[in-house]
Design brief:
The complex is a heterodimer of chains A (564) and B (359). With 564 residues, chain A is an all-alpha fold. Chain A is 71% helix and 2% strand. Chain A is built from 24 helices and 4 strands. Chain A is globular, with a radius of gyration of 25 Å.
């Protein structure tokens, strides 16, 4: 590539990140430490620690992140080990199905969990039918704090990230490493704990980090569970009286600091670089054909986990089709009225249109910028290109809530970037917000494509008289189209599901994206929850199509998208 | 140290027969080589002895005990892997100590034995190094120490030197033999490098398509190959097809397209009869060159290529009645013949001309 063009891309990316990544974070941090009289203060931070409600929120957030991460690993690790050890029947399909929950909106699934585990829910109705529970004193599974429901929903949503990371790490272990242990007398569980687990720990840690950051600051799920005693929800409610209230800012800063702090502790404990494996693998991994028992175990586990993870969404689907569903295993009366109502409701059609618009524009931006960055990183010798790569990965490490809050602060009336909110229309800032958050996936995906496509193919075209840029578009881009489409589809579906930015930045009803519309419907009275679930089912159907497309196109490489 | 007997060993991968009814005896304390072209089954055989493959048929006996169905972690062999398979999350000391820990050896003894093992491979004082801080040669030494420290019943080496440069390879192979002999180890060594095998093996087996082509000492296999494949795989050779004319004493006269050659069968039990088809093997260094025709075993040809390498000169002769040239090499060449096109005569003593079954 022409050096000038590469430098331009580099410069543009750095400026873009300075404006829409560093600046919003800086803006938020500043607000937490500056008094209205423009002097530095630690009072706001101190006040947080004096307020038991905020302290409880921080502790609960930590639990939410920790338990979600542990539960996700608990689900994913055995599955990944099984898939890496045996060749069982239907593995290809089960291996893809296990990933589906990642793109089912957890925020919508939470409605289903409420329906299943609530006091008048499916589980209790089932137990009462069996005579195992007193109908007059149903158990409250979700408990008072409802943390259980939130953690369960988060883990059932996020375990695929752990699965992908652990699988990739296992695939990179030279089988001879395990055979050497076997040869020296170390077998079974001991071999797993002494050799295999330590060797895949960086992969486990990479997955765990993303899951922790994601769930520590998760907003959508606790909101639907009406679980107000976590920091994310407190921040969300805090912005209603934004002007003059410094506490949401202080909370955001604490959340950011905590994220970095926990990341560093985790890195120190588990993520230490063990060094690249020496030599090349002499033998490929040969998977054992599964015995009938192993077949049963593997297929059973995969089906069970997948089933459990889509259960909430089945619950939502049933809810959307039920006239009334209270205290019974299945709804007693069915109707398609909610779908018709949903289509007639001004909020729903409008929000679908909005989301499509925001998400597709953000995806276009992602694909163009992501491809350009990947090209500079992989194909040029520009000094500092690793820095560019690292910069593009940063959004994975910063909670969405923190960025959303930063965008809100920097576009408030009277701020330097208030022109980005055209009147009341948040379209520009929402597109930028969606794009920044999902850029890492597209960059990774495109970079993988460039790495797999030999540069000599492009050189051959140039050698035959094709100018460099044309060689790129005629030879390389068609070859990596699959990667770009897959990365783009993933970015698109995550943008469609985005919660933090959508809830915080879209303030007027006519600009609501789907997620905010669902939230508005859930909290409204009457048939709101039914309408919300109908809208949720529309959204899920939509996403299912896109992600299946991405999976088919990218195949196993999907895992590469979720590595830090 | 253990003696190993293999009887009727069969290993299949799907429809591919990797090992076909193998019988091998390896004596206690012997340094035994497995050699052959890639895909011949040598690594499969090694991995079967270590227990990583379970055979479909046949037996593997360690000192007379059948271990065919014993899992690898209970066979007390120690393997040195081609990729070394050193665990990157453990340092040098921990890697070497691993097998002792698995054998529940007491801490002070572990420390003592690991230090001795590291000293033996000249890696003393480097126990705290990380694996990725070591050079290829150092990693190879650590892998050897890790295998030796457990005092295995049998040491297994799977192309242990293939990742090293030529100079280090020569140094390490002598070192491996020294250590094996010092401890009286039974060792099985897989390689595709015939020089490695010839230089340090007690005995070697050449495998071909899952069958044993020949077992013997390096001299036997080199000087008296039993098949054309062995002759071609171990060292360079010229192979010539022919038909037996007559026998005189222990010498057999053979008619070939390039003239009459007189030699002896490599297998003393084999008495080729007149008109029987045979293949003749004659090594380049057994041929000498002359400008006038010799009395016996004369091969006349035109010089097509000559290469001077200092201690040796290689010549190629194109011979009427034959597509491939005849190669010959002259040690300590005083004068190099460079006139290509010139007619020359190559000849060999009858004891250097080996009769083999037809290829």
């Amino acid at each position: 590539m022409h050096k000038g063009l590469a430098t331009t891309i580099y410069g543009f990316t750095i400026v873009f990140f300075a404006l829409f990544f560093v600046y919003p974070i800086w803006h938020t941090v500043k607000e937490a430490f500056v008094t209205p009289e423009d002097t530095f203060t630690l009072v706001y931070i101190a006040e947080i620690f004096k307020n038991p409600i905020y302290v409880e929120g921080l502790i609960n957030s930590f639990y939410m992140g920790l338990f979600t991460t542990l539960l996700s690993l608990l689900i994913a690790l055995p599955l990944a080990l099984m898939a890496n050890h045996w060749d069982f029947r239907g593995k290809e399909i089960l291996n893809s199905l296990i990933l589906v929950p990642l793109i089912l909106p957890p925020f919508v699934g939470a409605l289903g969990i409420r329906q299943i585990l609530g006091q008048a829910g499916v589980l209790n109705a089932f137990l009462i039918d069996l005579g195992l529970m007193d109908a007059n004193a149903p158990h409250d599974w979700l408990g008072e704090g409802q943390l259980l429901g939130v953690v369960l929903m988060n883990a059932l949503h996020l375990y695929p990230i752990a699965y992908l990371n652990i699988s990739a790490a296992l695939a990179n272990v030279d089988p001879a490493m395990e055979e050497a242990a076997e040869n020296l007398g170390c077998h079974g569980i001991r071999r797993l704990s002494r050799i295999t687990l330590p060797m895949i720990m960086p992969g486990v840690f990479a997955g765990a980090t993303i899951i922790f950051i994601w769930s520590f600051t998760e907003l959508g799920v606790p909101l639907i569970f009406d679980f107000g005693r976590v920091t994310s929800v407190q921040i969300f409610h805090g912005i209603k009286d934004l002007s003059g209230n410094p506490f949401p800012y202080a909370l955001v800063v604490l959340m950011l600091v905590a994220t970095v702090f926990f990341y560093l502790i985790g890195k120190w404990l588990f993520g230490r670089d063990i060094g690249a494996s020496s030599g090349r693998a002499a033998t490929g991994r040969v998977l054992k054909p599964a015995s009938p028992m192993a077949n049963l175990l593997c297929i059973g586990s995969f089906v069970f986990v997948t089933g459990l993870a889509i259960l909430p969404h089945i619950g939502v689907t049933l809810l959307s089709l039920s006239e009334q569903w209270y205290g019974s295993i299945l709804p007693r009366h069915w109707t398609n009225q909610h779908y018709l109502d949903a289509l007639g409701h001004p909020l729903t059609l409008n929000s679908i249109g909005n989301s499509l618009k925001y998400a597709s524009l953000a995806t276009v931006m992602n694909v163009i910028l992501g491809t350009a960055i990947a090209y500079v990183v992989v194909r040029t010798k520009l000094p500092g290109r690793q820095f560019l790569d690292a910069t593009a990965m940063l959004p994975l490490a910063v909670p969405g809530l923190v960025l959303a809050f930063g965008y809100l602060a920097m576009t408030r009336e009277g701020q330097r970037f208030d022109f980005l909110v055209l009147g009341e229309n948040p379209i520009i800032i929402l597109i930028i917000a969606y794009a920044v958050r999902r850029l890492p996936y597209v960059v990774r995906s495109a970079a993988a494509g460039f790495q797999q496509t030999s540069v000599t193919l492009e050189e051959a075209a140039q050698n035959l008289g094709c100018p460099p840029l044309k060689a790129l578009t005629k030879v390389t881009l068609p070859l990596i189209a699959a990667n770009l489409i897959a990365g783009g589809l993933l970015a698109f579906s995550f943008a469609m599901l985005e919660v933090s930015d959508s809830l915080i930045l879209a303030e007027q009803q006519q600009y609501f994206p789907i997620t905010k519309a669902i939230y508005a419907l859930v909290t409204s009275l009457g048939n709101g929850p039914h309408l919300a679930s109908a809208l949720g089912v529309w959204a899920m159907a939509f996403l299912a199509i896109t992600i299946v497309g991405a999976g088919v196109i990218l195949g196993k490489k999907l895992g590469a998208l979720f590595r830090v | 140290m253990v003696s190993i007997k293999i009887r009727g060993l069969v290993k299949r991968f799907g429809s591919v027969v990797a090992l076909n009814q193998l019988d091998i005896d390896i004596g206690s304390g012997e340094l035994f080589f497995l050699l052959g072209p890639s895909g011949c089954g040598k690594t499969t055989l090694l991995r079967s002895i270590a227990g990583f493959h379970l055979p479909e048929e046949g037996k593997i006996l360690f000192d007379g005990d059948d271990v065919s169905q014993v899992p690898p972690h209970k066979r007390e062999t120690a393997m040195m892997f081609q990729s070394y398979a050193l665990w990157p999350h453990l340092n040098v000391f921990k890697n070497v100590a691993f097998g002792l820990e698995e054998r529940r050896v007491k801490k002070p003894e572990i420390k003592d034995r690991v230090e001795k093992a590291l000293a033996m491979v000249k890696m003393n004082g480097l126990g705290n190094r990380k694996i990725n801080q070591l050079s290829g040669g150092q990693q190879q030494r650590v892998a050897l120490a890790r295998a030796l420290v457990v005092r295995p019943r049998c040491l297994m080496l799977d192309e242990p030197l293939s990742n090293l440069d030529a100079k280090l390879r020569i140094e390490m192979r002598t070192e491996i033999r020294r250590i094996c002999k010092e401890f009286g180890l039974t060792a099985i060594y897989v390689t595709h490098d015939q020089k490695e095998a010839l230089s340090i093996a007690d005995r070697l087996a050449v495998l071909d398509g899952g069958n044993i082509a020949q077992v013997g000492t390096p001299e036997e296999v080199y000087r008296k190959p039993r098949t054309a494949l062995v002759a071609g795989f171990i060292g360079e050779t010229n192979l010539v097809d022919g038909q037996v004319a007559f026998q005189s004493g222990d010498q057999i006269y053979v008619k070939t397209a390039i003239g009459e050659l007189v030699g002896r069968p490599s297998n003393p039990d084999w008495k080729p009869q007149p008109d029987e088809r045979v293949t003749i093997s004659v090594r380049p260094e057994c041929l000498s060159i002359d400008v006038s025709p010799p009395a016996q075993n004369a091969i006349a040809g035109k010089l097509t290529e000559s290469t001077y390498l200092g201690e040796v000169a290689h010549y190629s002769l194109s011979v009427d009645g034959r597509e491939d040239p005849i190669h010959l090499s002259e040690l300590n060449p005083r004068r190099v013949i460079r006139d290509t096109g010139e007619t020359l005569y190559a000849t060999a003593k009858s004891e250097d001309i080996v009769l083999l079954p037809p290829r």
